[in-house]
Amino acid sequence: MYTPDLYKNENPEEIRTFLKENSFGILINQTNGKLCATHIPIELELNAEGKEILQGHISKLNPQAEGFAANDQVLAVFTGPHSYISSSWYDHENVPTWNYIAVHVYGKIKIVDYETSVEQLKKLVDKYEVNSENPVRVEDLSAKTMREARGIFGFEIEIDEIQATKKLSQNRDDHNYKNIIKELEKTENPQSIAVAEEMSKCRK
């Protein structure tokens, strides 16, 4: 991912938090000579050795999985809030741009066994059911329903490299920076307001 030094995020804790809060990602690999991508939840977890990995699952009917055996190299892309930035918000002439936060994770993928896949499903469901009035638990599902789990491949990704970008108008002086935040807040667009919130955290 092309990232000028000014916008690189090299704070491991920030990146870890971002991945946990923005875990619906895009899994990309090469299958039969073509690039393939699937939009799925990909969770940051610790393996048995205490090393951080990514884990998730895809359908066995998804042809993307055919490529894992031939080439285990994958890219997982995660995106956060983003917004158009109008150059009319500056006190000088310039070009419009886009502010955004994104993380690319490169690694090696492997398919896990059925029992491990089910454990992954339990963690995933528990995470997203935590605020449900009547939370679903994988442990409570019938044998008939759980047969559907036979139709997925659970996977783990051993992380080789993480590239993180946080492009939030760091190249602007305080006056213009604060004005960008103010204008973003006026938009009433949730994405723009989220960018304004992130900018406010970066520069008080």
From TrEMBL:
InterPro entries: Split_barrel_FMN-bd, TR_PAI2-type
Pfam families to which the protein is assigned, alphabetical: FMN_bind_2
GO biological process: proteolysis
Keyword Protease: yes
Family annotation (Gene3D superfamilies): Electron Transport, Fmn-binding Protein, Chain A (2.30.110.10)
Domain of life: Bacteria
UniProt keyword list: Hydrolase, Protease
Keyword Transport recorded: no
UniProt GO MF annotations: peptidase activity
Protein name, entry field: Protease synthase/sporulation negative transcriptional regulator PaiB
Species this protein is from: Flavobacterium chungbukense
